Amino acid sequence: MSTAQPSEDAAAPGAARSPAAGARLSAAWARIRPKTLRVRIAAAAAAAIVVALVVLGVAVVARLDDQLQGSLDTDLQERAVEVARLSASTPALLTQPGALEGRLGGSALFVQVVDRRGRIVARSGGLGSRVLPEDAAVRSALRDRRAAYGNDSLGTDPIRVYAAPLGELGQGAAAGGAVIVAGTTAETRNTLDDTRTFVLIAAVAAAILAALLATLLARRALRPLARLSAGARAIERTGDASQRLSAPSQRDEVGALAETLNAMLASLERAREAERRFVGDASHELRTPLTALRGNVAYVTRHGADDAVVADIEADVARMNALLDALLALAREDAAAPARGGEPVDLVDVAVEAAETDPGSNTIVQGGSGTAVVAGERAALARAVGNLVRNARKHGPPDGRITITVNAHRARAAITVADEGAGLHGDEADRAFERFWRGPGVRSEGSGLGLAIVKAIAERHGGRVEVDGPRFTIDLPRLTDLSRTARTTVP
Q1: Closest CA to 367 of 411, 409, 404
Q2: Quick count: other Cβ atoms within 10 Å of Cβ 337?
Q3: Lowest CB count within 10 Å: 53, 160, 179, 411, which one?
């Protein structure tokens, strides 16, 4: 007991140091691990070939060993049967020279016949002065009267032994004894060793060949990635998001990656363009109200407060607030991602909401047949329809009626806002959705961004906006899967 304790104590520091040893091993592996993808692919291919050939070699060697041993066991059994028949029919021939000789391929079979007491009655000449060992197989044949196989050695040679009991009837000296047949397994072992060596050499050669081929194939396969990387570095150096990466001609994973990266660059370019346009639009449109506001503030500073000047200041602030709100909304639409995968939105609900928020009392909603549900952002669509209603209220007859019509046909859904005025035609209709465009003869000031916001929202939802006289229509892709929405009909 006293000698066991120190060994346990000595083992404890090694156990305590095992995490540090593991960390050092991980750090060493990180240093020697291949850095490039090409080398890792080649190493993986070589390792896979080695593993596959090793597994195949083990299976082949095991199968070959089983077949060779099975063939040897069959030959030993057949020779034992021949000797047993000879002992039963003509026992006197057992002691004749050459009676017990036999061959297995190019090797001699060793035969030995013993009586019921284990004394040798006859044996083959190939044994010379040697005697087959009395192992468990021989004892089983003599005592238990059962045939059995065993492995042993004859001098320095490994042998396979088969012992079978002999019949007890008859006048021969071997009656009731056993016949022992043995064959050397040296050739079998040599064959298996040669096979293992061949498999090992083949595995090494195949691994080298696989590594070379994998390197060549990886270099060819990764060439488009290298071009993409070079193009991306060039874009990173210049900072020009309008450039595009050259896509490979083949439609594979690298081509899909190039398309994804180009789409990302296009999105970045849109965001930058939206930023530039926002800055330009804001600086252009805010200059007029800021100039007026500066002049009114200077007047108040010199002459004191005046009701008319204060009213002008409030109007300028309100105009600037409305303009900033419109600019921010337009900038968000320019930079936002497509909304085709948004929530289900019923255009009837959007139309009813727009009619309820209109300050006029003569706005009506009409519906056609079918469903008018689209996928997108409800708030954005409500803003677009609200802009159309406000535009109709601003530019239509003062007491005229505004009609909001919702229709659905096949794969499209549309919402139309119409007033009772003359509307836009010709060049005015073409320019209606330009930013900061204001039609001639307008009765009130505006930012000129309302219809531009409507167009941006419609296009972001995969649709379009059209104008025909006093009728403004937002046409959108219809959502055919209505399982996500409760409303299914237009009233």
Answers
A1: 404
A2: 9
A3: 411
**Which residue type is seen at 11?**
A
Can you give the residue range of the structural domain that contains 4? 1-28
Closest of 471, 476, 489, 491 to residue 403, by C-alpha = 471
Global pTM exceeds 0.70: no
b (16+ CB within 10 A) / e for 309-320: beebbeebeebb
Tell the residue number behind the tokens 């000129």, with chain if given: 448
User: Same domain, yes or no, for 452 and 424?
Assistant: yes
Helix ranges (DSSP H) in 90-185 = 136-143
Distance CA 148, CA 182 (A): 12
358 shares a domain with 325: no
* End-to-end CA gap in the chain: 95
Do both 458 and 352 map to the same domain?
yes
Residue given tokens 């087959």 in the structure block: 132
34-65 pLDDT, tens per residue?
A: 567 777 777 888 888 888 888 888 888 888 88
| Inter-residue contact 429 to 453 (CB < 8 Å) | no
For 225, how many CA atoms within 13 A lie in the half-sphere containing its CB?
A: 11
- Residue with the bigger pLDDT between 58 and 170: it is 58
Residues 353 and 456 in one domain: yes
**Tens digit of each residue's pLDDT (9 = 90 or more) over 88-117:** 777 777 777 777 776 655 567 888 888 888
